Amino acid sequence: MSRRDMHVSDEVAEALAAGRPVVALESTIISHGLPQPRNLQVARELEDVVRRGGAVPATIAVLDGVPHVGLGADQLERIATEPGLRKLGFRDLAPAAGLRASGATTVSATSFIAARAGVRVFGTGGLGGVHRGYTQVQDESADIDTLSRTRITVVCAGVKSILDVPATLQRLETRQVTVVGYRTGEFPGFYLHTSGEPIDWRIETPAEAAGIMRAQDELGGLDSALIVANPVPLDRQLDPALHDRVLAEGLRAAEEKGVTGQAITPFLLDYLVNGTGGASLEANLTAVRGNVGLAAEIAVAWAGRD
Ligand code: PSU
Ligand code: MN
Question: Does 257 qualify as catalytic in the annotation?
Answer without folding.
Answer: no
